Amino acid sequence: xxxxxxxxxxxxxxxxxxxxxxxxxxxxxxxxxxxxxxxxxxxxxxxxxxxxxxxxxxxxxxxxxxxxxxxxxxxxxxxxxxxxxxxxxxxxxxxxxxxxxxxxxxxxxxxxxxxxxxx
Length: 119
Hints:
Elements: E1 2-5, E2 8-11, E3 14-17, H1 19-91, H2 94-105
Antiparallel strand pairs: 1-2, 2-3
């Protein structure tokens, strides 16, 4: 004889859980699977985010290094430019031209006498 009390069915010495509790247990298992899937998805998402963040970070560090190298090169070129501008100005100075002509070409003014002192 089957007797029904609360959510249990009893047939002989065996007690059976009611259908509603079976569905609740199944839903609980399904929820666990869903939670596991969401946790795995979140972990994969965070892993990809970390990977791409680190990739961007290293590219940025490399770009900073390149920028610093180019700034140093620019400073050297600006220094060279200013030196060439000074030399250009000197080349247009008559006294400098005369000094260079005497020094490198051995030129003298008319009537000047050059004395070479031996070593």
